[in-house]
Amino acid sequence: MKNVTDSFVSLSRWPSAGSFGFNIDILSTNLINLSVVLGVLIFFGKGVLSDLLDNRKQRILNTIRNSEELRGGAIEQLEKARARLWQVEKEADQFRVNGYSEIEREKLNLINSTYKTLEQLENYKNETIQFEQQRTINQVRQRVFQQALRRALGILNSCLNNELHLRTISANIGMLGSMKEITD
């Protein structure tokens, strides 16, 4: 510590300008050298440092300006995208509503068509049943008539002689002939 205070004290007593020699006090020589270097740097480097700082300031301002322009463009694109999204969502809702109504309409058409088809099938079934019933009734009538005719012929053959038999046949042929004329 004593050397530091001595160097400051020795600063107040400078040797005369005409003498040249080695100063072995490191602290006092370093401070002088440092102050001289700083003075030269400040005097000569002030312009260069000012230019460097101005250039850096301009680059930062340009970067900020470009960033602001890009931000504005991005905000504009975002607004356009939001508007397009809103429009697409609106169209999608419209398609969804139209799709649901179209599905309901097709569903009702299908149900109505199915009911009509079922009704037609029911009518065909009823007609077929009536036709089959009528055909069966006609077949049963024919069989009953044939059996009745066979019985009647069997009874007549067993009960009648030839002369009575011929008269009955003639009478029956006459009756059938008159029935034919009535139906024509």
Automatic annotation (TrEMBL):
Pfam families xref list: ATP-synt_B (PF00430)
UniProt keyword Methyltransferase, yes or no: no
Spans traversing the lipid bilayer: 31-49
InterPro entries (alphabetical): ATP_synth_b/b'su_bac/chlpt
Family label: Belongs to the ATPase B chain family.
Record note on quaternary structure: F-type ATPases have 2 components, F(1) - the catalytic core - and F(0) - the membrane proton channel. F(1) has five subunits: alpha(3), beta(3), gamma(1), delta(1), epsilon(1). F(0) has four main subunits: a(1), b(1), b'(1) and c(10-14). The alpha and beta chains form an alternating ring which encloses part of the gamma chain. F(1) is attached to F(0) by a central stalk formed by the gamma and epsilon chains, while a peripheral stalk is formed by the delta, b and b' chains.
The protein's name in its UniProt record: ATP synthase subunit b, chloroplastic
Organism: Paederia scandens
